[in-house]
Amino acid sequence: MPVSVLRRLIIIAAVLLSLSAAGAAPSPQRILDRASAHFAAVTDYSADASVTVKSKTVHIPKSRVRIFFKKPDKVIVKSREGFAMLPRQGVLAGDPLINLRRGAKLKLLGTKSLFGVSCFVVSGMQEEDGRQIKWTVWVDRKSWLPRQITTEFGQGSATRANLWYMQAGKGRFMPSRTVVEVQPPSEGGRGACKDTLIVEVNFSNYKINTGIDDKVFNVQGGCS
Amino acid sequence: MSGIVIQAEGLSKTYGRCVAVDNLNFTVYAGDVYGFLGPNGAGKSTTIRMLTGLIRPSSGITRIMNLDIKNNRAKAMQGIGALVETPSFYGCLSARENLNIFAGLSGGCEEGSIDRVLQMTGLAGRADNKVKSYSHGMRQRLGIAQALLPKPHIVILDEPTDGLDPQGMRDVRQMILQLKEEGVTVFLSSHLLFEVEQICTRVGIIDRGRLVMEGDVKSLLKTESGPVEIRTADRERSLHVLSGVSGVRVLSCNGESLFINAVPDAVAEANRALAQAGIKVYAVIPKNASLEDLFLQLTEGSREK
Amino acid sequence: MKNKLYAEYFKLLHKPRTYIGPAAMTLLVAVALVALKYGNQFRYMEERLSQDYILAGSFINAAFLARFMLFEFVVFMFLPLFSSMVFSDLIAGEASDGTLRMMLCRPASRLGIAAAKYAAGVTYVLALTFGVGVLSYAAGWAFLGRGSLVSLTGGIWVFPEGQAILRLLLAYGLVGLGMAAVGSIAFAVSAFLSNASGAVAGAVGLVVFSGIIGEIEFFAPLHPFLLTTYMRVGWLFKGGIDAHALLQSAGVMLAYTAVAAAIGFAAFARRDVLS
Q1: Residue of chain B minimizing CA distance to C110
Q2: How far is CA B176 from CA A145, B166, B183, in A?
Q3: Among residues B48, B70, B55, B51, which one has the least CA distance to residue B14?
Q4: Which domains are assigned to chain B?
Q5: DSSP code of A90?
Q6: How far is Cα A111 from Cα A119, in angstroms, rounded to an integer?
Q7: Cβ B74 vs Cβ C109: under 8 Å
Q8: Least CB-CB distance to A222: which of C55, C146, C158?
Q9: Would the CB atoms of A88 and C54 count as touching at under 8 Å?
Q10: H or E stretch including B226?
């Protein structure tokens, strides 16, 4: 083969390879890292939240509270109505992906549409407290924001969290609404609710990185 | 029926097989001070309770001011003051407060009435002390006070001098006489026959649930013979002789004296029999009839039983 | 009637034994308050809840204390005991003291006297029952704060404060009616006796016996006829307020009250006062 033809073939092959590299899906690890990156810059925040709980056994009226969060995991809820009670599994504060371990048998299941939004679907498995936990995350391909997180704990117990976002500051997106559906285990298991629990939280009035004092999270006479 | 204020007709009360009052009939007239006498267990308290509506008769009628107590008790008791057995009060309250409560149950009383009755019964100085600190005599006087509170025209008193000292007894007698002067009709039961004889105009004597005697005191004592004292030289022989004289009943002996109960003719016969037996008779002294004597005569059967 | 009512209220307020019930209930509220504020039992409940729930504030508050005071020992023992004590004193107590005899020698109708006594008794038991509620809420407010009511009956129920107060009012109202019924039974028994303790034993004994029968499944056909069935108020603290059940409970207790009162009045009207 003449050298000039070989050189052209190599150049064409290189161009094709780079084009395919550009169009190929990122690794699951990378997808999760980019999704988490949105929340990494948030050291603390507070927001008004309106919480609605639907359940056959847990009957909590619509509550208006203010949620305070400070890294790594300080959360406290304050209610002007004197007392409020929010299912812990239904309130996502901080990075919703923080408990999903990166090295845990990650797998990219492809891209699928969720509520009309194209998403990467990443699944993983990890062991915790002697049980196998399987989870799936749907990450918006455009914004890299996690839209849905499902977690299966075994024995029929599972949670599904759907998230919607709003702009809260320059280039920063925070959840505007979360809907968490909690399915209790079919037999035994822990948890105060014995049937499906749906918790919807609507957020507003974010104040981010204001340097919340640790004293705010000191509880007097209540729990956080 | 005019002038009749209290009337009992065929009044009876039985408790199971026990007949407490048996076909009782008596009448109290306006202005009377009527003494209701009888031995213990004769039925006096039961009768008074039926008069005041505290218990329902088994049969018969009681009327006050011509109103049947059974059907019209509240109206019949208006203008009546009553003290039935030992008076009881609310110990945690003062005398004044107790009287206030009872006055309220009578539909109220005139202003100053409470002070008036407390003054009458000598309790004005202790009016504001709690009744639980009162002696028995003071409670008795307070009981009389509550009976006088409504300025009654009929007063029913059951043993009003019970527990009182002699001065207190005299005060009560004076008070009853005062009421009589004012035209108040008094119906009272008492064991103190001497005082009943002094103050009562009429008496009714009840024994074993039945009325055995009723009438004007003076008339009863005139018609009934009192005991006669006979003093003789030989009491023992005299007893033997008199036991054979018809119409003579030996009541008691005391030293040389014998006390007999007999009509005048029988007294003469007794004197003749003693003289015939050769017994010297030093004196034959008729004693005035007393209510006690009459009472004891009439209720002798109860005591023997 | 005004004079008779005044007399009965006056006596009631001046008798030392009238205050045994309020004193005992005040002590009980104080004990409950200390237990809630400093005891571990309820802290443990809060900690258990906080494993699954984020709690803003504490559910141990005024409403919780007021609800807590409606526990069965209070509703089936304490309150009936104090209610019976006062009602039985009205006739049997006065009979044994001799003051009934003094009253009935006055020109006042027996039914009028009985009505005044009964009214005083009903006023007392309602005041005692609602007094427990008001005192526990006020004490809870002062020492624990106000807020929603958390009820753990048949699930988890959180009632906002307004709802909580309404339910508490209804619950205390039903219990008050129950105490009026129990008191009426004591009143009826007392009309036959000259001994107040007999009437107390009769009324309280009936409540306890009825409560026991109400717990035994074998006697389930009898449960709809038992007074204590309708004195239970736990159902007011879960779900919606069942108006039908509310009316039924109130109706049954009013029926018990009316029948017992009628028996008491009739017996008193015919009673021979021997003491």
Answers
A1: B74
A2: 109, 15, 11
A3: B55
A4: 4-222 (3.40.50.300), 225-288 (3.30.70.250)
A5: G
A6: 5
A7: yes
A8: C55
A9: yes
A10: none
CB contact under 8 A, C61 and A82: yes
| Interface contact flag, C104 B75, Cβ < 8 Å | no
Q: What's the distance, CA A143 to chain centroid?
A: 14
Residues in chain C within 8 Å Cβ distance of B80 = 107
My answer on whether omega of the bond before B227 falls inside 30° of 0, hence cis, is: no
- pLDDT surpasses 90 at A81: no
This prediction has a pTM of 0.81
Minimal CA separation from C10 to chain B, in Å? 9
pLDDT at B304 (0 to 100): 46
Q: How far apart are the first and last CA of chain A?
A: 75
Beta bridge partners of B189: B36, B158
Q: Of A125-129, A144-148, C4-8, C100-104, which gets the smallest average pLDDT?
A: A125-129
CA end-to-end distance (rounded Å), chain B? 38
Q: Give the list of residues 6+ apart from residue B111 with CB closer than 8 angstroms, or none.
A: none
Neighbouring C-beta atoms of residue B161, cutoff 10 Å: 23
Distance from CA of C169 to the nearest CA of A (A): 20
Query: B20: buried, middle or exposed (CB in 10 Å: 19+, 13-18, 0-12)?
Result: buried
What are the beta bridge partners of residue A149?
A137, A161
**Residue A82 and residue C147: Cβ atoms within 8 Å?**
yes
Q: Walk me through the domains of chain A, giving residue ranges and CATH numbers.
A: 26-217 (2.50.20.10)
**Under a CB-based contact definition with an 8 Å cutoff, are residues A76 and A84 in contact?**
no
Amino acid making up residue A20:
S
CA-to-CA distance for C66 and C131, rounded, in angstroms?
11
Q: Is C98 on the interface with B (CB under 8 A)?
A: yes
pLDDT digits (tens, 9 = 90+) for C103-154: 999 998 899 999 999 999 999 999 999 999 999 999 999 999 888 898 888 8
Domain ranges, ordered by start, for chain C: 2-270
